[in-house]
Automatic annotation (TrEMBL):
<feature type="disulfide bond" description="Redox-active">
    <location>
        <begin position="110"/>
        <end position="114"/>
    </location>
</feature>
<keyword id="KW-1015">Disulfide bond</keyword>
<dbReference type="InterPro" id="IPR013766">
    <property type="entry name" value="Thioredoxin_domain"/>
</dbReference>
<feature type="binding site">
    <location>
        <position position="114"/>
    </location>
    <ligand>
        <name>Cu cation</name>
    </ligand>
</feature>
<feature type="binding site">
    <location>
        <position position="110"/>
    </location>
    <ligand>
        <name>Cu cation</name>
    </ligand>
</feature>
<dbReference type="GO" id="GO:0046872">
    <property type="term" value="F:metal ion binding"/>
</dbReference>
<dbReference type="Pfam" id="PF02630">
    <property type="entry name" value="SCO1-SenC"/>
</dbReference>
<feature type="domain" description="Thioredoxin">
    <location>
        <begin position="57"/>
        <end position="235"/>
    </location>
</feature>
<feature type="signal peptide">
    <location>
        <begin position="1"/>
        <end position="20"/>
    </location>
</feature>
<dbReference type="InterPro" id="IPR036249">
    <property type="entry name" value="Thioredoxin-like_sf"/>
</dbReference>
<comment type="similarity">
    <text>Belongs to the SCO1/2 family.</text>
</comment>
<keyword id="KW-0732">Signal</keyword>
<keyword id="KW-0479">Metal-binding</keyword>
<keyword id="KW-0186">Copper</keyword>
<dbReference type="Pfam" id="PF19335">
    <property type="entry name" value="HMBD"/>
</dbReference>
<dbReference type="InterPro" id="IPR003782">
    <property type="entry name" value="SCO1/SenC"/>
</dbReference>
<protein>
    <submittedName>
        <fullName>SCO family protein</fullName>
    </submittedName>
</protein>
Length: 235
């Protein structure tokens, strides 16, 4: 009888331990965290958005997926649009996978804000270590594809001494451009045949094409932008 009681107690405690392990596992599976790790290892009990970068929180169980070569739902590499660079070569955004992307939307005939955005991009690039630029693309995307042909982009790149890596100039159709601007939360509007009003935003994307940081304004302090680029390059 004592032996039977001992066996029953043993089974009970083994079962209780298994339940605890299973509960812990379930708890881990419903935890959420920021894919950019803005708050380190901090997790949340419910889905939502990161209070720092505003990106959607993801389940902890998907953390290994984010570190792999798979494209997450928030990656710009999911866009299937075709773009043409300043050399007349066609590409898709996914072709840039593996590089950190620093992106700004301009138009080459702009005489006001765009030259200052070009200067801001140059300033950011100059502050980065030279050896980091092997996995970096500094990208200008035209919001005026009718005017900004590949030939015009090439001339603009040469005029600004940006005709070599890591500089890249892109154009596409008006629909593709509008779609991409929506992803970046960049607003623009044609106010005359040769002039646009537009947001002044520089966006940083990590090697998986996920938005890591945005700098807004002209001539602003770029310390945070440079730090996010360096962090993305180190990943």
């Amino acid at each position: 009888m004592k032996k039977l009681l001992f066996l029953l107690c043993s089974v009970f405690f083994i079962g209780l331990s298994a339940c605890k392990n299973e509960t812990a596992k379930s708890s881990d599976e419903v935890a959420y965290y920021c894919p950019m790790e803005c708050e380190g290892d901090k997790t949340y009990d419910a889905p939502g958005s990161c209070p720092v970068c505003k990106m959607d929180l993801v389940p902890v169980e998907k953390a290994s997926d984010l570190a792999s070569d798979d494209i997450s739902e928030t990656s710009i590499f999911n866009l299937t649009s075709t773009w043409t660079n300043q050399n007349g070569e066609d590409l898709q955004l996914e072709d840039l996978k593996g590089d950190v992307l620093v992106v700004v939307m301009i138009y080459t005939s702009c005489k006001a804000a765009c030259p200052r955005l070009v200067a801001d991009m140059r300033n950011i690039e100059e502050r980065l270590p030279k050896n980091a630029k092997d996995h970096l693309k500094m990208i200008f995307v035209s919001i005026d594809p009718k005017t900004d042909s590949p030939e015009r982009l090439k001339a603009f790149a040469e005029e600004n001494v940006m005709d070599k890596a890591p500089w890249l100039f892109l154009r596409s159709s008006e629909d593709n451009t509008r779609e991409f601007s929506a992803v970046l939360a960049v607003n623009y509007k044609k106010i005359s045949p040769i002039d646009f009003s537009h947001s002044n935003i520089i966006s940083v994307f990590n090697k998986q094409g996920e938005l890591a940081f945005q700098q807004e304004g002209l001539g602003v302090n770029s310390d945070a932008t440079v730090k996010h680029i360096e962090d993305a390059l180190a990943q």
